[in-house]
Fold this protein.
Amino acid sequence: MLLKMTAGLSGPEFNLAPGDEHEFDDAEAERLVDAGFAVKADADDAPVASPARKKGKANVVSASGDAGAE
């Protein structure tokens, strides 16, 4: 069964990102759909989940005013 991934999935034979399509056997395909990791590829109107974003400030270090960063 052809599935469209809604979450990333990696294994010894594939490395899939959200939005990628891949052919799985029926049992594995049903398991992935039930878990929410994929939707059937022919369901064009099914939304693809976007990765969660972190809230808060970015972890950025500034060299300004740091004597050790010269």
The mean pLDDT is 81. The first helix runs from residue 26 to 35. The first strand starts at residue 2 and ends at 5. Residues 31 and 65 are 54 Å apart (CA to CA).
